[in-house]
Amino acid sequence: MLELRLLQGGLLKKVLEAMKDLVNDANFDCSPTGFSLQAMDSSHVALVSLLLRSEGFEHYRCDRNVSMGMNLNNMAKMLRCAGNDDIVTLKADDGSDCITFMFENPSQDKIADFEMKLMDIDSEHLGIPDAEYQSIVRMPAAEFARICRDLSTIGDTVLISVSKEGVQFSTRGDMGTANIVCRRTTTVDKPEEDVIIEMEEPVSLTFALRYLNSFTKATPLATQVTISMSSDLPMVIEYRIEGMGYIRYYLAPKIDE
Amino acid sequence: KGAQLSITEFYRAT
What we know:
heterodimer; A: 257 residues; mainly beta; nine-stranded antiparallel beta sheet; five-stranded antiparallel beta sheet; 20 strands; 14% helix; 46% strand; B: 14 residues; 2 strands
């Protein structure tokens, strides 16, 4: 028996919107720790890792570890039928081949049940060891989304270079080039607007903007985004979900041929 | 434009 009740149903809607363009089908893993997912995009270039900890749910019952295969587009469609302020409950009986999404409006005078078929998904789970990254940038999530969107109108890839002073995003395309530098900030009164750089070594890496633009669909989930880079590792882009966990995207770099 | 590496080149399947 599985029963997860989330007071902020809008959060689950945002989580689905943040993943559905990148991944078609994925297994959601439910354990006493929380509700989680790890999945790669179809070309195995990017990986998304989601954790919603059990403490963040108003009620969390998961009698045994279960893995439930879902089509993320279909799940997003069903969740779009929930109001942003609705309470969302996920329910599944042991051995059942479907999951029920129950939506309750805030005044609790409208209750909706949506039942979705589960699928068998043969997915590959990757072990991601903890790593010390050479450069970590924390910046406003909306600013990062804006930069990725703007640069993708000029070029297909972005060179991200981190130094002690700031982070530079550069691209080039048929029409010309673009460079955006975000300087490290030192304000203390508005931490959500800060650009914070933790640098062990300067890093310069190239990434496909198409993927970064897809990751920025998670922007509504967090005010800040954390970008971790090392020269010999995929980058990690993390949006922390307050009181619940995180959504992390891993993207393999492009290298000179 | 450079070669795109795959994420599976970095992390092992569990």
